[in-house]
Design goal:
Largest sheet: none
Distance between the termini: 43 Å
Order of helices and strands: HHHHHHHHHHH
Number of strands: 0
Number of helices: 11
Length: about 280
């Protein structure tokens, strides 16, 4: 509501706290890793690879930076190269954090214990509770809880900013205090009410967000890119040679369309309980 700049500064503080708690928590968890758990030497006979299709929409949401694009354009201006660098570096940082997080969890939690986590609702708090059974020290547990809280909070902050700017543009609200108050209500009142009614609906919402993201952040951008290139080719404008151009040619478009369709179909099959799940 105050400004994009304030959100940016506030995010830096929260991300700084997230980095510190991440370092403390992961250093402790990594030191407690048992190779028997990490390599799953007590294999229970489940072919884990088949379960990846259930999580595809969640993976997409986890790396779905598209909601931040409107705010980045508003903040930096029409600087595609600079915005592209932000997205690439941000994605790589997130990928590194996710990799370490998965390594630490798989090395501290028995595979069969994940069944209890899933049965309890599968939220971050349930995962931390399972990990705490094999961790030594209250300080390490507090750092783990702090990291989990800041990770979710900063994620919502970035996505919320993008949603805020998108709704302002969609509804035609101006940048005055009154206009931003209207945007605030339209953007955040529905999820707040939904969260109060169904507090354990985070993973369910993430899954459906992944299905929506398949359409608006994978399929539609690919079609927009295709339409733009066709229009540019028809115009044969000389200035287009200096414009920013996504690499990969038409193969990028086709790959995005195929990926979007696969994720969408997998999520629909998951909703109807037609995909194998680890239970």
């Amino acid at each position: 509501w105050w400004s994009t700049y304030v959100v940016d500064r506030f995010s830096i503080v929260m991300i700084g706290g997230m980095v510190l708690t991440f370092v403390f928590a992961m250093s402790g968890m990594l030191s407690e890793i048992k190779m028997s758990r990490l390599l799953d030497l007590n294999f229970d006979g489940n072919p884990y690879g088949i379960f990846v299709f259930v999580a595809l929409s969640t993976y997409l949401t986890s790396f779905c930076f598209h909601a931040s694009v409107p705010s980045l354009v508003k903040y930096f201006g029409k600087e595609p190269k600079k915005i592209n660098q932000c997205l690439i570096y941000g994605t790589l940082i997130a990928l590194f954090a996710y990799t370490i997080w998965n390594l630490a969890c798989d090395g501290n939690i028995e595979r069969t214990a994940f069944k209890d986590v899933i049965a309890a609702g599968g939220n971050v708090s349930h995962l931390i509770e399972a990990a705490s059974l094999n961790l030594n020290g209250a300080f390490l547990l507090r750092m783990l809880e702090g990291f989990a809280f800041l990770a979710v909070a900063t994620s919502f902050l970035g996505a919320g900013l993008g949603l805020f700017d998108y709704m302002a543009d969609l509804c035609g609200f101006d940048d005055s205090r009154l206009g931003r108050t209207k945007t605030l209500i339209v953007a955040f009142a529905p999820p707040i009410i939904a969260g109060m009614i169904y507090p354990d609906g985070f993973l369910l919402a993430i899954g459906w967000a992944g299905l929506a993201a398949t359409i608006w952040s994978v399929i539609i951008p690919a079609l927009l890119l295709r339409a733009n290139r066709i229009a540019r080719a028809a115009q044969k404008a000389e200035s287009q040679t200096n414009d920013f151009r996504v690499k990969g040619g038409n193969w990028t478009i086709y790959a995005l369309l195929v990926f979007g369709c696969v994720v969408g179909v997998c999520h629909i099959l998951f909703v109807f309980d037609l995909l194998p799940m680890y239970k």
